[in-house]
Amino acid sequence: MTTEPDAGSTPDAVRAPVPHAGAVPVTLALRPEALAVAGRLPHDFNTEYGDPTPGADALAARLVELVGDGGTEVLIVGADNPSGPEGLAVLRFRPSLWSAADECYLAELYVVPRCRAGGLGRALLRACVARAVARRCDVIDLATSEDDVAARHLYEAEGFHRTEGEGGPLTFHYEREL
Amino acid sequence: MTTEPDAGSTPDAVRAPVPHAGAVPVTLALRPEALAVAGRLPHDFNTEYGDPTPGADALAARLVELVGDGGTEVLIVGADNPSGPEGLAVLRFRPSLWSAADECYLAELYVVPRCRAGGLGRALLRACVARAVARRCDVIDLATSEDDVAARHLYEAEGFHRTEGEGGPLTFHYEREL
Predict the structure, then answer these.
(1) Residue A119 and residue A115: Cα distance in Å, rounded?
(2) pTM reported for the whole predicted model
(3) What is the pLDDT of residue A80?
(4) Does the CB of B43 have a partner CB in chain A at under 8 Å?
């Protein structure tokens, strides 16, 4: 893993701002207090889509562990909103096989239903790309459903492609549960 | 990262056998001598498909580093073949967000052209699944091209699916170079 550049935070900061090209403030959740708030969102995400979830508290505890290991970052919009955060992204980093750089995987991107279509997803995504660049990754990737048309439009508008090269064959994501 | 169970190796072993359901012997490359041999294959893979490669020596050195970190495993078929190894797989492990288990990503699967259609890919894939199970992962995933029909048939025959659930929408892999 490459050394993480300064994220604009002091070691005691609960959150740090993530510079990106838009007006919506995105922060990096660094400490357990911020991650406890963040843990609600992946729980809500899976609940909305009928997928299993270990619960908000278990997710928050796991985020604390993963962020502590240095290989995961959690980005939030609306962290100070009195009715709770408005969206989150989870990034996973690992050293690339093909270069001396790291590669970044966008594991989760979620905006709460009441805040959709307002640019928060785009702000989060741009902040994710900025974090991947700051950590000197040479690629960022993700998997998403054919059905999630709004997300796919956003990814494509932000320069992601689901083909091998421009106009090449599609790239499918396969998985097997164990 | 969960603790790696014993792979049937002693600490001094260069390679260790990976048990799987087939007759083709698959070994885990553990030491620099074995990884130096293995590094030739991802180089050959990218050369065959016209993709950039840092060269066999750089790949071997990177594999030594990644395997040493404990988050990567390299599986080989035909390691003792006098004309070189016949195939390899590279697995990446990381702790899951959604459970206390790890998740496994099949980053590379390659069989040299002269040995294709002989069951080596299937043997490697089954050994990969066995390693993911041995490391108590709850999922194994990968990305592959629509054009790679032989590989897709193999993945589907071995229980991988490219949809959300059985018969659900397709899952696309998106990436953006940075």
Answers:
(1) 9
(2) 0.91
(3) 84
(4) no
